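Chain A, query sequence.
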Amino acid sequence: MPEGTRAVLEGNEINRALTRIAHEVLERTKGGQDVTLLGIPSRGVPLARRLARLIERVEDRTVPAGSLDITMYRDDLRSAPVRALGRTEIPVGGLDDRVVVLVDDVLFSGRTVRAALDALGDLGRPRAVQLAVLVDRGHRELPIRADYVGKNLPTSLRESVTVRLDETDGYDAVLLGPARPSPSTTLNRRPAAEEPPSSSPSTTEGND
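Chain A, predicted structure.
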């Protein structure tokens, strides 16, 4: 684990948070009959599939789960490095008149969710759209709020939140550590001698 980084959630705690979210989804959607779960790549996808399995255990029926790539809908395409396109998988039956629950790992500025809503609008007409996140770290830049939250985690802009999942990383954890400069910030940084004095530290951070 990098210096200055600590785990704020580990395997059992993540499982409990997801189990609670699954029950909240069932309660709010009256049994989840019309629910479709769409994970936002990358780690939102395995989280969506876990939620689907948890709901299936309670209701004893299959819950559609897929993925929604938002790469081409992001508002930083011009300034950010080239991103690999992800995969969009819409379950059989489509999205029309469904209750679509978008699933992501960390909610930060809200820009990722805004992009997901734009992408969703091109794929169907859901009856309702809800948002489930494992971690809400605050610092919203857009008027977006999660319907289901595993953990509300107060953070500063000098900190980063990283989610690790068994499906993608070999273990489950939510890590809190020092903020990482974004690639665009690093590439555009002038030599130290040329930088003007600043009254505040850099607050660039990678979560959206």
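The beta strands are 6-10, 35-39, 65-67, 99-107, 128-136, 148-152, 159-164, 173-178. The radius of gyration is 18 Å.
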